[in-house]
Amino acid sequence: MTYLILGGNGQLGSEWNVALSGKEKNVYSFNSAELDITNYDAVKAVIAKIHPDIIINCAAYTKVDEAEEDRKKSEMINHLAVEILSKVCADEGIKLVHYSTDYVFSGEVQDQREFPDGYPENAVKNPVNHYGKTKLNGELAIQQSGASHLILRVSWLCGAYGNNFVKTMLRLVQERDTVSVVNDQFGAPTYCSEVVEQTMKLLENEQEGVFHLGSEGIVSWYDFACRIFELSGVDVKVKEVSSSEFKTKAKRPHFSKLNTTKVEQALNAKSLHWETGLDQLLKTINL
Ligand SMILES: NC(=O)c1ccc[n+]([C@@H]2O[C@H](COP(=O)([O-])OP(=O)(O)OC[C@H]3O[C@@H](n4cnc5c(N)ncnc54)[C@H](OP(=O)(O)O)[C@@H]3O)[C@@H](O)[C@H]2O)c1
Fold it and tell me: pLDDT for 145-183, tens place per residue?
């Protein structure tokens, strides 16, 4: 099996590289400097040269606030490049693994009432920020391309590599006595190691289509932060703030929990609880 990893330097791309190294021989991984996915000719040339069986697309424009202003670039990376990539995959018979986001959903309070265990894969999509819109457009392009694919939506992604909320919290406490965290946005972290593991199993089982990957349980960012500090033995004051007090350029969904029943049934295995995953992750993090 020949793998091509795009965005190989991000948090998920790095996790894929580590997971496949030593296990698979034919793994080609490119970071953004080596292969810009918006350079369609370059992407096509690499595919023509290495003939991958599977493309793992971890490349994305992930700066949610900047995307509000950098609209063209986020659309290019998250939608148009994905459209071209999926068409090449369809033409060449390559399986495309693509990651998407909880932000394709609106996250309104009434959705939390309707889906207390999280959004199912087929719930109505209605992103509240530009990043979410570009990611949804990317998903739709893949589905229309005819390529064999897995679209895996993840939320609050955290891993040992790159940047994420867990690392930010641990860094902030080194600089401050008090950390303010929003208490009115609810969801669940998705851990990169579990994402890679579940994706590999879905590939082995020749699964297709859209799946939600994420931890069991629902938590607010505030409670998540408190647990990070508790498990790390850090003594810091955590101040609860509302989203209206913590202004950001991009609107964030109030409710972001993804229902993971479909993947659990496909793999016949429960997802980790968010606290168990956090405990495991903290043991691997070096700041
Ligand atoms: N992080 C989250 O909380 C979160 C939540 C939900 C969904 N997701 C989704 O999960 C996936 C993985 O996210 P992540 O956290 O691993 O993201 P990340 O750490 O930001 O990594 C994204 C990678 O894509 C690369 N990239 C950006 N533009 C590119 C281009 N034009 N060509 C090639 N590579 C490019 C970036 O390189 P540079 O750094 O050099 O630009 C970076 O290495 C993404 O699809 C994201 O939308 C993430």
Answer: 999 999 999 999 999 999 999 999 999 999 999 999 999
Structure tokens given for 146: 């005819």
Which pair of structure tokens corresponds to residue 240? 């609860």
Work out which ligand 1 atom sits closest to the CA atom of 57: 45
DSSP 3-state of 95: strand
Delineate the domains of the chain, giving CATH numbers in brackets.
2-163+189-215+256-272 (3.40.50.720)
DSSP 80: I
Atom of ligand 1 nearest to the CA of 37: 32
The token pair at 204 is 């082995």
Pocket of ligand 1 (CB under 6 A): 6-7, 9-13, 31-32, 36-38, 58-62, 77, 99, 101-102, 135, 154-157, 162
Query: pLDDT (tens digit, 9 = 90+) per residue, 224-273?
Result: 999 999 999 999 999 999 999 988 999 999 999 999 999 999 999 999 99
What is the Å distance from ligand 1's center to 233 Cα?
Answer: 30
Residues 6+ apart with CB under 8 A from 17: 5, 8, 27, 29
pLDDT digits (tens, 9 = 90+) for 103-153: 999 999 999 999 999 999 999 999 999 999 999 999 999 999 999 999 999
Exposed/middle/buried for residue 96 (C-beta within 10 Å: 0-12, 13-18, 19+): buried
